[in-house]
Design a protein that fits this description.
By secondary structure, this protein is mainly α. About 80% of the residues lie in helices and about 0% in strands. The chain is built from five helices and no strands. The longest helix has about 40 residues. InterPro entries: DUF2798.
Length: about 160
């Protein structure tokens, strides 16, 4: 008896993931990463008080509308650049490299926006010392999150966004 393999005929119109689901996925990543890091930074700058949550939300929203959109654009650019410059490297190695660069860039921006929310811009010396201290003290969390996200979530999210 001859077995005939039946191959499904690809439809000319593949199902695409709705845009609102893609936006929700990106907002989820922004909230996870940005919320964790700005929360830690706010705590490091202000400590825990009755104003902590209001200051945290303010720092997160500031970062969400300034630093994070630039970060996502930079991540896309770095991903394309890494694919061109290092075509023989594994995707995992490229993602870890991009993750480390992005951790520093995003961390610097969020530390700056959190420092501005904490001490203002009137005293630039205080602003810069608060920014640097916040950056250095929160860096371990940012590096850990970016390493985990770069290796686990980033490839899945990229495939999801391309679908």
């Amino acid at each position: 008896m001859n077995a005939i393999a039946v191959m499904p005929i690809a439809s000319s119109e593949e199902k695409r993931t709705p845009l609102f689901l893609k936006v929700l996925a990106m907002m989820g990543m922004m909230t996870l990463m940005g919320g964790s890091i700005t929360g830690l930074m706010t705590y490091l700058n202000q400590g825990y008080s009755e104003l902590f949550y209001a200051q945290w939300i303010r720092a997160f929203l500031t970062a969400a509308v300034t630093v994070m959109p630039l970060g996502f654009a930079l991540m896309a650019l770095l991903t394309k650049l890494a694919e061109r410059l290092f075509p023989n490297s594994s995707e995992k190695v490229r993602n870890i490299s991009i993750g480390l660069i992005m951790a520093m860039v995003m961390e610097s921006g969020m530390a700056f926006s959190t420092a501005v929310n904490s001490v203002g811009i009137a005293d630039t010396s205080m602003l810069m010392s608060t920014w640097l201290e916040t950056l250095v003290r929160a860096l371990p969390l940012a590096l850990l999150l970016m390493a985990v996200v770069s290796v686990t979530l980033k490839p899945k999210v990229e495939r999801f966004l391309k679908s």
